[in-house]
From TrEMBL:
Pfam families assigned: TraX
Keywords assigned by UniProt, alphabetized: Membrane, Transmembrane, Transmembrane helix
Coiled-coil ranges (or none): none
Top-rank taxon: Bacteria
Tagged with keyword Membrane: yes
Organism for this UniProt entry: Enterococcus moraviensis ATCC BAA-383
Name of the protein described by the UniProt record: TraX protein
Amino acid sequence: MNSLRIGKFKGFTTFDLKIIGIILMFIDHIHQMFVPMGAPNWLDWFGRPVATLFFFVSVVGFSHTRSKEKYMLRLYIGMVLMALGSFFIQMIVGYEEVQLMNNIFRDLTVGTLMMYGIDKISEGRLNKNVGKIVAGIAMILFPILSSVILLSFMSNPDTVMAAVWGANFIPSLVFTENNFMVLLIPLMYLARNSRWLQCALIALVAAFFFTQGSTQWMMLFAVIPILLFNGEKGRGMKNFFYYFYPLHIWLLYLVSAYIAMH
C-alpha cells in the first residue's frame, strides 16, 4: 500500500482504505453468492465494516473533489447502470436462489445529495441567500420524500411496477442497500473536522445494532482504519472501484449460477 514504509507505518491513505474495503467486501459477497452451496455464515462478518468505510471515504472524497457536481453524477450513473445491469443479468440467467440487491452506488448517491444540500445551506447562511438555504433543505429532504412517494406507489398493485422501476432512477433513502444507516454520511460530513466525533457516531449506530441482535454492530471495527487514516489521497485509480464493484458481484453471481445449474 502507498502509505506503508518498511519499518515505519505512516497510516492509511484514502486508497488504502478503499483496498481494505474491497477485500472485506469480496469475502462478504462470496458468502452472499454461495449461501445455496453452504457458504459459512461467519464470512458475512467480514462485510459488516465495509459500508461504514466507504461512507467515510465518500465524505473525504466529497470534501476534497474539484467538482462536487461531477462527483455526484458519477455515482448516480453508477447507481443506474448497476441497477439495470443486475436486472438484466438476473432476467437472462434465471437463477432465483440468489438475488442481486447490491448497489452501494445508491447509498453513496443519496449521501452525496445530502452533503451537497448541507453545502448549499452553509453557502446560503454565509451569503444570506434564502434561495440557497431552501434549495439545500430540499436536497436533504428529497431522498426521504421520494421514499414516501415510491412506497405509496408500491402499496397500490396498479402502480407497484412503476415504483420498482422508479427506484432504479430516483435516489431514495429506504431503497438504499443500508437503509437509514446511510444518514451516517451527512452526519460524518457535518463532523468532518473531528475524527473522534465521526467515530463516536459510528459507535452509536453500532451500539443500536448490537441491541437489536444484528451482526451489523461489527461495523464498529471500521473505526480502527478510520482512526489510522493519515489524510492523504495515496495512489490514483479513482475509477477502479466503479468497475470492480459491479463486475465482481456479477461474476460471482454467474459462477454461483453455473455451479447450481450443473
